[in-house]
Design brief:
Two copies of one chain form a homodimer. By secondary structure, chain A is of the alpha+beta class. The first copy, chain A, has two domains: about 350 residues, 2-Layer Sandwich (BirA Bifunctional Protein, domain 2); about 110 residues, 3-Layer(aba) Sandwich (Rossmann fold). Chain A contains 17 helices and 19 strands. In chain A, strands 2-6-7-14-13-12-8-11 form an eight-stranded mixed beta sheet. In chain A, strands 16-15-17-18-19 form a five-stranded mixed beta sheet. In chain A, helix 13 links the parallel strand 15 and strand 16. The first copy, chain A, is elongated. The termini of chain A are far apart. The relative contact order of chain A is 0.10. Chains A and B meet through strand 1, helix 1, strand 2, strand 3 and strand 4 of A and strand 1, helix 1, strand 2, strand 3 and strand 4 of B. Strand 1 of chain A pairs antiparallel with strand 2 of chain B, so a sheet runs across the interface. Chains A, B: This is Histidine--tRNA ligase. Chains A, B: Keywords: Aminoacyl-tRNA synthetase, ATP-binding, Cytoplasm, Ligase, Nucleotide-binding, Protein biosynthesis. Chains A, B: It catalyses: tRNA(His) + L-histidine + ATP = L-histidyl-tRNA(His) + AMP + diphosphate + H(+).
Chain lengths: ~500, ~500
């Protein structure tokens, strides 16, 4: 047999735009997903885990953010079919509901959590694989379903550790914007396709309010806008008067929900769609009030414009209102962690029938980043108790020790590297952030004792300016083997406190 | 603007070989993963969640089962690089360890759980996406690491609900087989490449012991084998004497571990590698014994031959020993749910340095199927309490009722479909497997009462031959609104009992 030709070594590298998660990062996300699932379940939602792979045909092109140059999916051809990784959890829901609608209850409340993949330009904090955590109600036409999702979102944020006052959930309505566009003369209910291009530019413009400010948006509503690099973006061509009506919409929030509703009613005077939309907002506010969710948690705010191009009715967004420092050290609000709304056309693609649906998506990685920014999560976690190996031939004894600790509920392990250099064992324990090391040489074994080393105390003494204050607490001491478990538990309890 | 051309409707279909998981299926798997993670963590392992996507270069071709015609990955070209979905969790571990080895502790104990994808022929119960749940120790040369994984596997099976006696963990060693091949004359330690082709056939042959029986394997060790369809598979060309030595290896298990070890020692007489392998098996048995894991849980069994071509030292496998019925109604052992072993060459691909590693993979979906087969998991779970809607205009009242229930910790929801037909609301509650419905018309609202309907009792009465026996327990009754929560809790507690 011919010798196999040597291959060059492969590069050990996470693919560009992807990343790996270690230890506490994984555990904290798992715990957060579990808490969110708990709230969703409590509200009557059922779990769904759809396949990560969909046919490209079923996925369609429904990314919520319309303004991406490189929007796209990871796709490949297989058995004469194009398959792709899901880019969100909503498109798969539409497919699943259309496929299984005769077996599923209606309304169908479902939650889903898992990674999604986007084939996009990457950047700092922007990855091609990230977690979403969604809840949607399919088949419920009433805005009570939207109100319920907002209440649930509020509960969820508090359950994962964002206290009331540190977040704001804003509710808006696409129908109100449509009414405003009618009044502004860029939407004709009798000819829905007319001005479609202008409306597209209006939608994209107001989606950029955060980034461009009112002047930038106003320019895009009119003739157009030249950005800092000199590139010109063509505007919607609205007159100054038309543009003012649209700008007035985004600026319609007043001190109370009732005042905001009244202002919006003025703006949409003469438009049935607009009036419907304002009434829906009012109903949502009433229903939330009945459940005890006041404006300290959820407000009507027409400045919430993200994704209005995607949704067909109520739209909602949760942002965290506390300040963090951006990469240049400037304070800024943490910003959006969740968004959602009503979309009544997704299932129709498959079945031809309009199925009302509303839902929310929580950006779990953003929420975790927020908790880290507030110091409510730490990167370090306590490692296991380490049973060191003094005598390679007595491995069975060390295994018996660790079995005793584990049976007593204490997380622990035997050092399994090369035991020759004892210092390496302690360095390993340090790297693992271990609380305690257990040491037993043959002398200790003969006398049925073990040495216990309190590594947290040891680290404190090493750091301390006056080691004297620790002199009554020895960092290493001998105990009878029979007292080992009790003594170690005592140390662990003390370290927690 | 030109009208958009109508697209044909997409098919709502899970891609071929994939599936969706609903409700209890998702929750039960999540709970099982959480229990397994708990045991792994307790043993000192740290979580790792690597990217689902890898470069094809990093993945290599290391599928454990060598005998698949359609083995393969889902891959696509991106930015002049070939990317692929991971097909297991071991290849990514090798990449991660090679990439981050300077930051990770050594030994590196890590666990990982998540979906993997295989581009293979599908069949009943055989999907292209499934869950794995792995634990590996990288950088520990001692077989104490292998023994630890076997002990942990035993604990894990018991924690997820497989009682002792219903499973068997078998340990074997590739080195012993290598020793046997030396003695049989198809392995020459001074020229490792010689007879490589014959050894490949031997490995594939003994991997098929389960399926072909001893006669089939014997044929493949010799001239070859004609299968039922008439296809001829070329054999390894061993003489009858040589084949007998290999067959003796698979048949070496004796009543006690010591007797098995003694028999294996005989078989490998004259081979250093074989002797090393038998000594390793003996050490593993001793270490397990020291931790209290006897042959009622873990046995040395040379008939465990799966994946011996892949591993380089100890190999282990967990099978469930209870009987289930196969698709034709015949009783058979449930079979393998987990396997693993030592592989000392995976990281070397990247770094050129040999890094010892050993680990186990649990087939979570198989384990869940086992628990269902034993009746330890059910497909049905209790749904939420349903607050029905008698009067569409009083939605705020129903929302207040459900808020009160939720705040009291009771899973509940308001019916959000079209409330016109009350029968549909009860059908919905039935489909959700709801325990209780709450009913409040305007009359009840005026009197500050609600009707409570015990749906489980209702179903029992409907099924019962003698409805009389239920006459003292009304299935629907009126309570003061202020007593609603207490009364519903009472019913739910009674249903649980």
């Amino acid at each position: 047999m011919a010798k196999v030709k040597k291959q060059p070594r492969p590069k050990a590298q996470t693919p560009k735009g992807f990343r790996d998660y270690f230890g506490a990062e994984v555990v904290q996300r798992t715990e957060m997903l579990s808490k969110i699932a708990g709230v969703y379940h409590h509200y009557g939602f059922e779990a769904l885990e759809s396949s990560a792979v969909e046919t490209v045909e079923a996925l369609g092109k429904f990314l919520p953010d319309v303004d991406r140059p490189n929007e796209g999916v990871f796709a490949w051809e297989e058995d004469n079919d194009w398959l792709a990784l899901r880019y969100d959890l909503t498109a798969p829901l539409a497919r699943v509901y259309a496929q299984f609608r005769n077996d599923l209850p209606t309304p169908y409340r479902r939650y889903a959590m898992g990674p999604v993949w986007r084939n996009e330009k990457t950047g700092p904090g922007r990855f091609r694989q990230f977690y979403q955590c969604d809840a949607d109600t399919v088949g419920a036409p009433t805005v009570a379903a939207d109100a319920e999702i907002c209440a649930m979102l509020s509960d969820t944020l508090e359950v994962v550790g964002i206290p009331r006052g540190d977040y704001k959930i804003s509710v808006n309505n696409r129908k109100v914007l449509n009414g405003v566009m009618e009044v502004a003369g860029v939407l004709d209910p009798s000819d829905p396709d007319k001005f479609a291009s202008e409306r597209g530019i209006v939608l994209r413009a107001i989606d950029k309010l955060d980034r461009l400010g009112t002047d930038g948006v106003r320019a895009l509503l009119g003739e157009g806008r030249k950005d800092d690099s000199g590139d010109f973006t063509k505007g919607a061509g609205l007159s100054v008067e038309q543009a003012e009506i649209v700008m007035g919409f985004m600026d319609a929030r007043r001190d109370t929900g009732a005042a905001t509703v009244a202002r919006l009613m003025e703006l949409v005077t003469g438009s049935q769609t607009g009036t419907d939309g304002v009434n829906e907002l009012e109903t949502i506010a009433t229903l939330l009030d009945a459940q005890g969710y006041g404006p300290d948690r959820i407000v009507i705010d027409p400045a919430v414009v993200r994704g209005l191009g995607y949704y067909t009715g109520p739209v909602y967004e949760a942002e965290l209102t506390f300040e963090v420092q951006d990469e240049k050290g400037r304070p800024r609000n943490f910003g959006s962690v969740s968004g959602g709304g009503r979309y009544d056309n997704l299932v129709k693609r498959f079945t031809g029938q309009e199925v009302p649906a509303t839902g929310v998506s929580i950006g779990v990685d953003r929420l975790l980043a927020a908790l880290h920014a507030k110091g409510r999560l730490t990167k370090e976690t306590t490692g296991p108790v380490i049973v060191t190996v003094m005598d390679r031939d007595r491995m069975a004894d060390y295994q018996a020790i660790v079995a005793e600790l584990r049976n007593a509920g204490i997380r622990s392990e035997v050092y399994l590297g090369n035991p020759k250099n004892f210092g390496n064992q302690l360095k390993y324990a340090d790297k693992r952030n271990s609380p305690v090391a257990v040491i037993q040489g043959s002398d200790e074994a003969d006398r049925s004792v073990v040495q216990i080393k309190d590594l947290i105390l040891g680290a404190k003494i090493a750091e301390s300016a006056s080691p004297d204050e620790w002199k009554d607490r020895p960092q290493q001491f001998e105990v009878a083997r029979s007292d080992m478990v009790a003594k170690i538990r005592e140390i662990l309890d003390g370290q927690d406190g």
